[in-house]
Write a structure and sequence with these properties.
Length: 307
């Protein structure tokens, strides 16, 4: 017959095993009770009860949920997972649509830009060569005194005029114009100076700096006064189509033929000084005589060169 031992006779290890076994039996009974009432979800159903608590301090593998709602977290988790997956799919689809639309817009912009390049004609900004035609001055008084007529220049263009007047005179070259002769109006060999500012026109006929040289393709722009400083261009209004104008350089003489009747223009008609694609000479002076509120312009085309 097995002898019954008292608690005092048990060792510490034996007491620990008994305590563990007692806890295991109590937990097993509680799990069985919960299982019968449907209040437990067994996560490791194949493991024997004796293996769930092998040592003190180890938590059980089974999860006991009070209130009979053990399956709800799993269903909710699956629902939210499905919802997140749907949101991710929609986001990917939206991103793909945006990329596709962006490529379409970019392609359309490139096509429109290409069409605009083909259809449009780029016009270069014209170079400002003058803001008012040269030769302007106030009518001479009883003593023959006069001054530059600044009132002809639009106020907002006066700073530009100062910059154009102060352009340095280029170094003289063999192809620069030195003299002009117009037999039909009695103008003999008259000197030509570089520049058409007020000071240069006191010396004779002035050539606009930057205009073409005689004999070249382009516009040779020459100016002189009509009622002061020798009245050099006094009779430009008498020139007719076909009259001859001769320009002299240090090496050649170039003959030009008047191609149109003299024109009367406003002092701001600076387009007559613009470069041309043929060899032209343009003569400019104030007009009318002793009034000087307009300009007279005569044009002639290069005819031949004489040695």
């Amino acid at each position: 017959m097995r002898k019954t031992r008292s608690v005092e006779d048990l060792s510490v290890d034996e007491l620990r095993r008994l305590l563990v076994e007692k806890r295991r039996l109590a937990r097993h009974e509680r799990l069985e009770r919960f299982r019968r009432t449907g209040r437990v979800v067994t996560l490791s159903s194949d493991a024997p009860p004796s293996m769930l608590d092998t040592a003190p301090g180890i938590m059980p593998v089974n999860e006991v949920l009070e209130g009979g709602e053990g399956a709800r977290p799993t269903r909710m988790r699956r629902f939210f997972d499905s919802l997140l997956l749907l949101v991710e799919l929609l986001a990917v689809a939206a991103l793909g649509y945006l990329l596709f639309s962006g490529l379409g817009v970019l392609r359309q912009l490139n096509q429109e830009y290409a069409v605009s390049l083909v259809q449009s004609t780029l016009t270069p900004t014209p170079l400002i060569v003058a803001v008012v035609l040269p030769g302007g001055h106030t009518p001479p008084d009883a003593q023959g005194r006069t001054k530059f007529n600044e009132a002809e220049i639009p106020e907002h263009l006066r700073p530009i005029y100062q910059a154009l007047v102060e352009v340095p005179v280029p170094t003289q070259s063999p192809e620069q114009a030195l003299h002009i002769q117009i037999p039909s109006i009695g103008l003999g060999m008259t000197p030509i100076v570089q520049g058409d500012g007020p000071e240069q026109l006191k010396k004779g006929v002035g050539q606009h700096i930057g205009s073409a040289n005689p004999g070249e393709v382009g516009n040779v722009v020459l100016s002189a006064h009509n009622d002061i400083y020798g009245e050099i261009f006094r009779h430009l209004d008498q020139l007719k189509k076909g009259d001859s104008i001769t320009l002299y350089t240090s090496q050649h003489a170039y003959s030009y033929v008047v191609i149109e009747s003299p024109k009367i223009v406003e002092p701001t008609a600076v387009e007559v000084m613009a470069p041309t694609d043929e060899a032209i000479v343009t003569l400019i002076s104030c007009y009318p005589y002793l009034v000087d509120n307009k300009r007279i312009v005569v044009r002639a085309r290069l005819q031949k060169t004489s040695q």
